[in-house]
Specification:
472 residues, alpha/beta, Fumarate Reductase Iron-sulfur Protein, Chain B, domain 2, FAD/NAD(P)-binding domain, 3 domains, five-stranded parallel sheet, 18 helices, globular
Length: 472
Amino acid sequence: MGNPKAFITTPRKDAGYRPVQDRIHDFGEVEQTLNREDRKLQASRCMDCGIPFCHWGCPLSNKMPEWQDFIYKGEWKRAIDNLHETNNFPEFTGRVCPAPCEKSCVLALHESPVTIRENEAAVTEVAFAEGMIKACPPKTRTGKSIAIIGSGPAGLAAAQQLNRKGHHVTVFEKDSKPGGLLRYGIPNFKLNKTIIDRRLALLQEEGVEFITNCEIGKDIAGNEILTKYDAVCIATGTGHPRDIKPKGRELKGIYFAMEFLSQQNQLIMGETVEADKIINAKNKHVLVIGGGDTGSDCVGTSIRQGAANVTQIEIMPQPPVGKNPETPWPYYPNILKTSSSHQEGCTRRWSLNTNQFIGVNGNVSEVLIEEVDWIKDETGRFTMKPTGKTEIIKADLVFLALGFVHPVQEGLLTELGVQFDVRGNVAVNAQSKSSVAKVFATGDAAIGASLVVRAIALGRKVAEDIHKTLSC
């Protein structure tokens, strides 16, 4: 611990965002960076606690106190090596993780936790810029082959871990480029796709094979893959979106959030999108239904496309500002979160249910909403009660950002005959094994929609489970 009093003498300093008037006109990353000296000072604020709750709060169990100290001392190579011991892709989590580590930092008790997430992104950028991150191909091969279906964070983490153990790994991706949710679900203003490409180049240099534009269960039979490989890992994510069915749901102009976000990323990458299928918010009144991060991403994308106005509604009540006694430290707090997209111009409202979509000539034009109350019963559970207070919101374009139910079951999963849990995810045991021999599952496909950091953690776990199974 280089400076035991830094948490007292050095205030927290966030890098902040680019000015709103600049960033809303492009899809460049909105977050700015601190210079190296400021970053060292921020890292010095780590107290090196006797019980590092940050380590407890992180699904990857990153060793924050250790690499914070390395940053403070300017030992960037030791810092990135320490990070890579537990996290395959700190450049991803350093940008898009909600940082449960910071929420459980002891300094969060005084609302000034260490800037762990920003420090993570910063040390990775220094390491890439100075050539500290290099391909690490295995020295020997085991002769075993594994097929990983899906190239999101869980699939990529599993692929790298298994490849480094000497197995031959082939990653199958139904889209034209690898990356899954990272590439097609997260807007460029949060994660530039060049960040993904440089990591993929390293994985390929290490020996991981990628086959794109190939949907297993459609282009290639699942049973054929099962016969060809020693193990198959399902890492397809949760592709089945949650829907609502009020009257008028069939009207044109109502889309799932991921249709919109994926298409915008395709357009930026120069991929072909049929002209009559392009979703454009320019000069339109946009309504986003769903108050989470995906909804926020729809807000930011709509603003960049030139929407006339954007409204985001949420059926749950507005969370408290600052602190919430129901989710005390060190747990992740349920409090009001204001994203960079919200700051760019958006009306946010809570406790509103969608009762009806109203249209003109087959296109949505308005949405009937109703205020609801949430009543807690004697068991502590909340139930929704309609109030009868209704209102009509003008909406030429509606995005449903309601989360995901479970992985797409039709096709590959039903062909393989895997069993599902009560939520519709692939049922796995403690060794990540499904009900079908040789078939493993990981990430959101096994646990439901979750965080990128948790997907990476599960990808690392399934890799270890597969390796142990193949080594028996």
